[in-house]
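Q: I have 148 residues here and want to know how they pack in 3D. Can you give me a structure?
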Amino acid sequence: MKVGDKAPEILGRNEKGENIHLSDYKGKKVVLYFYPKDMTSGCTAEACNLRDNYTDLRKAGYEVIGASIDDEQSHLKFIEKNNLPFTLIADTDKKLVEQFGVWGEKSMYGRKYMGTFRTTFIIDEEGKIERIITPKEIKTSDHAAQIL
């Protein structure tokens, strides 16, 4: 996906097993942020920064949706532990990460593995991608400011 592309209508299932559609957010800008894994330090910092600035993001017309390949149970625990006010998509079949092009080979300590690239897509009121914040640009502890 690139700037100007139409985002998919079906985003996936959330932590409650409900289907999430882009049209559910008609008239709002959507912050769709992809992150590697629930309960890890960077992902927790990013989620908590978005939580702490959630009111400001909503005032600015944004709705926040997180997405990772973790399952619904993992998301429920992550939401509960960190008191997150937004929904998380459980992309267990990796359909959404592949559609958005954020799934690929990563390496840590010389070990190569497949994973999610931390990436945020800002989707406008018409469902088009307006802006992409790339993995190199994202500051997990100050991500809301980057969006605003």
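Q: Anything worth noting?
A: Residues 10-147 form a domain with the Glutaredoxin fold (CATH 3.40.30.10). The first strand starts at residue 10 and ends at 13.
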